[in-house]
């Protein structure tokens, strides 16, 4: 059915598809017909569909992590909250708040004492792009606290989707641990060792759920004793800002885009506070629910193979059934998209293995139209050099 000339030319046509795709990815101008492809390549992953539309939204509450919202509490209130929490002996308290300047002397003294406790991890900001790397800590008055950097991996943490975390920073001269890695180290040393042994500079975040999948309290509830001590004793406490109240989406401070966002493409409203993202990261670490990613070389080979198979079919239909070419090609594209997405979702959910389906779908998508360009080049090659292609032969 498929002649040798067709199979050989399909290799060149597939290479052309990848060349065109590369041109699209770096094209500097805003051309309307390129926009869908550029959006997919810029800030979209097929896993966003999984988390937003398909993932189980009713997972059991992770009772090992308790989030405490400070709301509009002042420093004296934060210190008092930490003091009350310590009375019921949590395993670790992670304080996701920065205190850049000095304020009320007594409040700062009280806060310094609470932040200096051995089971407290404080956040700082790592400036890894600088050389040598530097960190932005809370005011030096609070001393040398047990810091972990709170950075999340994103091109723009305000507008990009948060999908990744850098557990450790190590350039051979400077070493630092992230906020969640420090907490894990104190709470579950075995899980911390497993994380280290993976040896990945970047980990893909396997999101567990929204704030509803964790135990949460308002700071006022802690201060007034309106909590169950058993839910805090021996647990991880994450204290930070989650809006004026837990679940508040009106204040965008420390509000991020995540794959759980209801709008998969063209997101307009953030959906998760940084504190909840840290809770998701810790859940992944503790449960060893890591996402393994297909190596780039293998991913490219798979993408090329799938694209090649479709190019063979499309060229054959282009020549043999030209009148119905687009209709047949669109049907194949639709069926292929369903099959590929099903396979990708299956591996992601069942085996926590990530295959880059985005480029597979894009190459299959654009290959239909790239064949018109290939046909033009084949005609030129025939007229100029008398090179007879599968197109010209028919």
Note down, in words, how this protein is organized.
The structure is a single chain. With 394 residues, the chain is α/β, with parallel strands linked by helices. The chain folds into two domains: 4-43 and 293-393, no CATH class; 62-290, no CATH class. 47% of the residues lie in helices and 14% in strands. It has helices at 4-26, 35-43, 46-54, 75-86, 105-115, 179-187, 189-198, 219-223, 274-287, 296-320, 325-351, 357-385, 390-393, and strands at 62-69, 92-96, 120-127, 134-136, 147-149, 164-165, 168-170, 175-177, 203-204, 214-218, 236-240, 255-256, 272-273, 292-293, 353-354. Helix 5 (105-115) links the parallel strand 2 and strand 3. Helix 6 (179-187) crosses helix 9 (274-287). The radius of gyration is 27 Å and the shape is elongated. It starts with a helix and ends with a helix.
Q: Which word captures the global form?
A: elongated
Counting structural domains, the number is 2
Report the C-alpha radius of gyration, rounded: 27 Å
Low-confidence sequence ranges: none
Order of helices and strands: HHHEHEHEEEEEEHHEEHEEEHEHHEHH
* Discrete helix count: 13
Q: Termini, distance in Å?
A: 14 Å
Largest sheet: 7 strands, mixed
Strand content: 5-15%
Pairing-aware structural class of the strands and helices?
Answer: alpha/beta
